[in-house]
Amino acid sequence: MAKKEERKLVRVVAVKLVNNTGQSLKYGYNYKIYSGNEEIEVLSATRTTSYIRQSVPSYLLYLALTPAKLTFTSGYKQSSFPLGFILGPGLAGINMAISGTANKNLRTELENNTIIDKEIKPGETFYGLIGIYDNHFMPLTIKISN
After folding, report:
1. How many domains are contained in the chain?
2. 77 lies in a domain?
3. Which domain holds residue 144?
4. CA dist 142 → 16, 38, 85 (Å)
5. Which positions of the chain have pLDDT values less than 70?
């Protein structure tokens, strides 16, 4: 998924927010996140996942291995075993299941740890994940508005 992040110019960033103010903080209402001097948009879990998820149907290409045969020669006698009937569908099915599970886990992780609509009470520390457009590794800062 890291390669997709680079190609799609999207980053998943782990954040730690400590509320040292006397007010509750809610993203977009009384604080915003900046990269340098530019405000950044925090992407929803759905949008982030759609950019960097693994393509499940692409693993169907393993089915091209289905006609493959393993041939044994013993003297003048030849015998073959249809290895492709096991290998092609097996690899396709296993990889599709793994990538589908990885996509689901990524989305669940992003949804459970998002800062969107999360109220951070005074003195509370919040750990989460955010999806942002690539900021070329500029430090992220928070600006609080009253």
Report:
1. 1
2. no
3. 1-44+114-146
4. 11, 11, 56
5. none
